[in-house]
Each structure stands twice: as structure tokens, then as C-alpha cells.
Sequence to fold (262 residues):
Amino acid sequence: MSCVSIIMPCYNSAQFIDEAVCSVINQSYLDWELLICDDESTDGSKQIAEGWAKKDPRIQVLQNRFKKGAPGARNTCLSAAQGRYIAFLDSDDVWLPNKLEAQLRFMEYTKAPFVFGYCENMSEQGVPLSTTKSPSEISFRKLLLSNFIPCLTVIYDTKKLGKVLQPSTEKRNDFALWLSILKHNKNLIARCYPDIVARYRVNHYGLSAGKLSAIRYFYWCIRQYAGLGTFTATFFTMAAVTFKVLKTLSPSLYNVIVTKIL
Fold:
């Protein structure tokens, strides 16, 4: 196994960033570098991150040198990344302690250059809400149905896939990235490690809170990055809305469908 470069965009996360960084430091797998890109925070987030960098040489703090927003911050980190593997963690989310070790062994066992996993959803206060599961395998076509790949669970191998910059979209930028990777690597199958590896913070202030806007961006992404026509893109967008409604109203039924049927 080799070094993992962890990509962490940061914007006004002073309330949560300590917990996020600690979840990296507490990993059972030790060969990693944490790249934190501050995106013009005004709440002291950068100073907190710099404090961690002084304590651990594996941590670097960068300033976004691309367009403001999460894609620019992630691409700033990616440009500086030295590790073979790329992983993602936002500054308000957390990993479970065995996340890296378990998924890297899974990558080695399956020989998959792109893996992800289940995540637990929690409130802003850290209270568990639900668990989001995913299909065991994701092809380009299956990804068109919905974004089944939680960004904070992903690890990909740059030796096999290269470094892939994140598309600069306001929303659904992670989905656009997965589409780009799967479309441009024919026969690539992303594989899901079938256990919870991370905890996602559901918030009222982040971009993920705008549901209607997210639907429009989903449609735009599959037009732009999957190359679908209007009719086909509309069909898949409606499918994605259906999955989203189901996941909201009945997470348990959603999990059964995506793990047993898809």
C-alpha cells in the first residue's frame, strides 16, 4: 500500500474542523497526508487548521488558487497531492477509525481502482439520523440513475486513473467528477465496501440543502458530463428524484432496493 492524499476543502468550519481532522489523525492506517484548503474563511477555520499543521507534519494548509468554491479548493489540494491514492473528506464530516485501512485492503482484494462505502447521516450536533447504503457495483450507466457514491467515502488510485480535476459546478460537483471518471475509463466499475466508513453531517446552511436546485444541477450534469440528450436526461433525472424521495421517506426501504435489487 502507498500514501493516501486526503482532500479537505474548508470554508467557515470552525465549529466542526477539529472533529474532522481528529478523525484523520485517529486512522489505523498511518501513511497519509491531509491537505486542507481554506476557501477565504472568516471564522478562524484557517487558524485552527494551521494549528493542526504545526502539530503534525503530515498536515498542510493551502489557500484556494482556483475559482472560489469546493471544486476549486479540492483542485488546489489535488494539485499539491503526493500520494498514490486520493480520498475526500469535507471539514464538517468525519471518518471512522478504520476507514482507510479497510477500504485499501478492499481495493487490494478486488483490484478495483475506485471504491466507496456506506455512510451514516448525522445532525449538525452529531446525532445519528440514518444510514445510506449503496449498490455493490456502480457502472457509468447505473450512476445515471442517482448519485449513489458518497464523496466522503471515495478512494481512487491515481496510478490507474490519473489525477482527475473536479468540474467547477456550484452543485453536484462530486457527481460530475464520478461521471467524468467512469465515462472516460471504459469498463471501469466502482466497487462499494459494504460497511459504514464515514459520518456525513446533514446541515441547513450548506449547498446540499437546496433540493430543487440540486435536481436542476443533476439534469445539467448528466447533459454536460454524460452527454445525454434532453429526453434521456429527463428520464434519468426523474429516476434520481424518485430515489431521493424514497431515501428521504423510507431510508430502510431505499437501502434494501439499492443493495438487493440494483
Observations:
- The first strand starts at residue 4 and ends at 10.
